[in-house]
Amino acid sequence: MGQGGWKGFCLPLFDYKTEKYVIAKNKKVGLLYRLLQLSILLYLVVWVFVVKKGYQDTDTSLQSSVITKVKGVAFTNTSELGERLWDVADYVIPPQGENVFFVVTNLIVTPNQRQDICAEREDIPDAKCSNDSDCHPGEAVVVGNGVKTGRCLRVGSSQKGTCEIFAWCPVEAKSKPAKLLLGEAEEFTVYIKNSIRFPKFNFSKTNVLDSQNRTFLKTCRFDVSNLYCPIFRLGSMVRWAGSSFQEMAQEGGVIGIQIEWDCDLDKDPSECNPHYSFSRLDDKFAKKSISSGYNFRFAKYYRDAAGVEFRTLMKAYGIRFDVMVNGKGAFFCDLVLIYFIKKSHFYRGKKYEEVRGQEVCTQQEESQRQSGAWEIKDAVGSGPGALLGLEQSLREEPEGKLPEHNMLEGGGGLKEDGCVCPQPRSGNLGRGKVTVEQLQALQTVET
Prior knowledge:
alpha+beta, atp-gated p2x4 ion channel fold, ten-stranded mixed sheet, 11 helices, 20 strands, ion transport, purinergic nucleotide receptor activity, transmembrane
């Protein structure tokens, strides 16, 4: 490449390019341009600021606690249990109510079970047998009730039977009761106390009315016009979820209680109110499915006179209630304090603390030392004679004190910028200490 080629390659590197604007005097294009600007402006004003309130600071880290207590009693008379009164200790599981609690509405009761040998249920596939070789000793029955003993038990002349097992005998009955056991549970009530806090704005509230009336919680019932009564009827919550309590209680189900706190904290705290919604969380349409409903088993254990343990097995059907809380707090005034009012710099300085390094503190100390020297000059008078006289007095007095002169009274403290520096009390003269070094600094400044 020749010399001319190198110049052609290198010289454009030093060119400077700038933009050139062409103003088109076209009304259609200009109108389209302004309409586009107006659309963007309307989007920002209407959607971002008015609808979505983008000017507000939000806090979504809601802190919440839930306490639940169920009340109500029921009376039953069955062949398995006889006459029995049911209270909250019998039908509420777990007894320590939190954000999830379960209310028993129906039961399959198998009383007086003892550890013994008996036949497995016929509807268990792994328990079916034709001879003893089909029942391997010590093998647990899959989804069954016990461990195989090695014998096949057949009824009469039947060719098929079930394996004998070591288990809690007799095994649980399969059929469900035809009648709902605790139909009265529809009238039971539950106390749901919800306390929330938005930590970013230090705002707290609860869904219980702040009242000194002791009978309020004993008589009130929640409805849309009484949001701060935390007493809910079970039947009403199931109905608000779109289900029938008597139908749901037969095989069980799950109800979700949603508490929403969507609060505009620029308004009065009384405007921050809970909003409730109720929904059925299990599949209410899967009535014929083997997995429909909600149930679990538990047992109560006893000992007879001989000390032999026995138990009553219960398969409980019921309704589980899940309390779910969420919310959002929005606040605008913090933004106003920091940026828009006349003394915004003062509030901003208090809200955000600036911490500087040690070298900045050293520079400030030197600046304040010079400043202190100038103020000493103002205190003792001007001119070389005054300063020399003060220096001579300092050398003669013990510890450099001048009890008869007015000087700056200094001290140390934590400044707003995070430095620990000596801080003279500007404008106030009083008795204190002054050093020869300060006077020498002042003489240096004057020269």
